[in-house]
Amino acid sequence: MASSHPCFSYDVFLSFRGEDTRKGFTDHLYTALKQAGIRTFRDDAAMDRGKLIEPELNKAIREAAISIIVFSRNYASSKWCLDEVLTIIEEQERLASKHDVVPVFYNVDPYDVKNQTGSFEEAFSWYDNIIETELDYQKKIEWLQKVKAWRVSLRKAGSLTGMVLANGHEAKFISNIVNVIRKKLNYKLLHIEGK
């Protein structure tokens, strides 16, 4: 059982593309993390009804010790997911932040995430088309900045050491993820207590 950290509201923030993995892989991962005693935020489990979703998700990311990003085939087709990964990378890079990021490449190549190729290229072609066809200059500039920030955050996330599942056994893969998270949490706890 993992120890809870007094300075974090959650041990893990789970970012994923719902239509790809919500009812399968991510649900099994979430259940395994919970069974291991790891306090995990998942948008459909921990959201307070009636609150604005985006501020609550950003708050949950900031209040988590670790973010797990489940990169799947359609991850980049969701502006919501891209905003999450942008916030996660920003949180990791904050000078005082102790936020870890564990990318999970679920039947996608880390190269595709890092370089926006494959299905990630398809999604960004769609965003580029929005920019090209936008007639409002201010909105065009906003889209350009947003897409550039998404690309940079994906490049950084795709460059991190992560875990790759390519047509393997999901149960064993999930068990390995839980073990990695436990080790990271135990290290954090020792580091905090050792101060």
Spell out the blueprint of helices and strands.
Elements: E1 10-16, H1 18-21, H2 25-35, E2 40-41, H3 43-46, H4 53-62, E3 64-71, H5 79-93, E4 100-106, H6 110-115, H7 119-133, H8 137-159, E5 163-165, H9 170-193
Parallel strand pairs: 1-2, 1-3, 3-4, 4-5
Characterize the structure shown:
With 195 residues, this protein is of the alpha/beta class. The protein has a domain at 10-110 and 160-188: 3-Layer(aba) Sandwich (Rossmann fold). Helix content is 57%, strand content 14%. Strand 3, helix 5 and strand 4 (100-106) form a beta-alpha-beta unit. Helix 4 runs parallel beside helix 5 (79-93). Mean pLDDT is 87; it is low at 45-51.
Features:
57% helix; 195 residues
Question: Gist?
Answer:
The protein is α/β, with parallel strands linked by helices and 195 residues long. The protein has helices at residues 18-21, 25-35, 43-46, 53-62, 79-93, 110-115, 119-133, 137-159, 170-193, and strands at 10-16, 40-41, 64-71, 100-106, 163-165. Helix 2 (25-35) packs across helix 9 (170-193) and helix 5 (79-93) packs across helix 8 (137-159).
